[in-house]
Amino acid sequence: MANALVVIPTYNEIDNIEKIVRNIFSLQKQFHVLVVDDNSPDLTALKVKELMEEFPKQLFLEQRTGKLGLGSAYILGFKWALKREYEFIFEMDADFSHNPNDLIRLYNACHKEGNDVAIGSRYKTGVNVVNWPMSRVLMSWLASKYVRFITQMNIYDTTAGFICYRRSVLEKINLDKIQFMGYAFQIEMKYKAYLSTFKIVEIPVVFTDRTKGESKMSKGIISEAIFGVISMRIKSLFKTLDI
């Protein structure tokens, strides 16, 4: 059995899902993949089921009844992994904004170098983002700077969604106490890992905006992150933040 699971949330990713799965399974390191699909109208789940016939021991699917949010999809995936024997659990997008080849780099950062969390970082060595409009690059970069300032975490890409967690991190964090399900989910997970003194490293990656499908970003998600960070920081100062 593989010791690494890649959790991929999907909503209308029919144009990307087969290619991303095949790319992951072509890597020299063996990974398993769990797709968590939010009842995609474009029948993404049906395509995954077809692929499962070809990869019955590597590819898995959890179907949900509606669009329930990125954070809850990952939490489902984390709990699914913890019920099994995976030692390294990954977050990854379906749209190729995250390069599948970088999975091995994140894995090695934890497995070989002894880190507990490896973040695929867009901002560790400058701004490594391709095909985003300047307004969105600036918004994302400023958001990470803002979060870093408020939380005092020494992390350049605090909102990154390409991550490898060692099993012990997800066992330590109370997944039932995660408050945020949107953009702020990524921040909350990193902050709780940081407060728990896990060893966190950033691995520079190039983030390439999707060429197929539609972005799921919204103003409400960004607002959640801005105000959620302040709330988390205050609770941590008063020792009332559930970890």
Give the CATH architecture: Alpha-Beta Complex
Please give the largest β-sheet.
Answer: 7 strands, mixed
CATH topology: Spore Coat Polysaccharide Biosynthesis Protein SpsA, Chain A
How much of the residues is beta strand, in percent?
Answer: 15-25%
Strand order of the largest sheet: 3-2-1-4-7-5-8
Helix fraction, binned, reads: 40-55%
Radius of gyration: 17 Å
Structural class: alpha/beta
The number of helical segments is 8
**N- to C-terminal separation?**
30 Å
At the first level of CATH, what is the class?
A: Alpha Beta
Mean pLDDT: 93
Total domains: 1
Spans of at least 5 consecutive residues whose pLDDT stays below 50 are none
Q: Quick one: CATH superfamily?
A: Spore Coat Polysaccharide Biosynthesis Protein SpsA, Chain A
Order of helices and strands: EHEHEHEHEEHEHHEEH
How many strands appear in the DSSP assignment? 9
Q: Looking at the structure, what is the overall shape?
A: globular
Family: Belongs to the glycosyltransferase 2 family.
Pfam family, one: Glycos_transf_2
Organism: Halomarinibacterium sedimenti
Keywords: Glycosyltransferase, Transferase
